Amino acid sequence: xxxxxxxxxxxxxxxxxxxxxxxxxxxxxxxxxxxxxxxxxxxxxxxxxxxxxxxxxxxxxxxxxxxxxxxxxxxxxxxxxx
Length: 82
Description:
Residues 7-77 form the DRBM domain. By secondary structure, this protein is of the alpha+beta class. The chain has one domain (8-77): Double Stranded RNA Binding Domain (2-Layer Sandwich). 35% of the residues lie in helices and 29% in strands. A 3-stranded antiparallel sheet has the order 1-2-3, with helices on one face. The relative contact order is 0.19.
């Protein structure tokens, strides 16, 4: 995947759907810190309550993309098993 890739949330969702397991539940937890004019967003992606990836960014979408990227890598490499 190239560094320009920005569809990790969709890729992660597709990866989970390909498992054909309706019991797999994905959710994002987000928060922000820093000044109002320049916040830093943090996101974590959880699958069945297991944190699989974390990310940060200038907005919530970027943070979620980074978390999904990390989670997808961990799942594909077998570092996280759900």
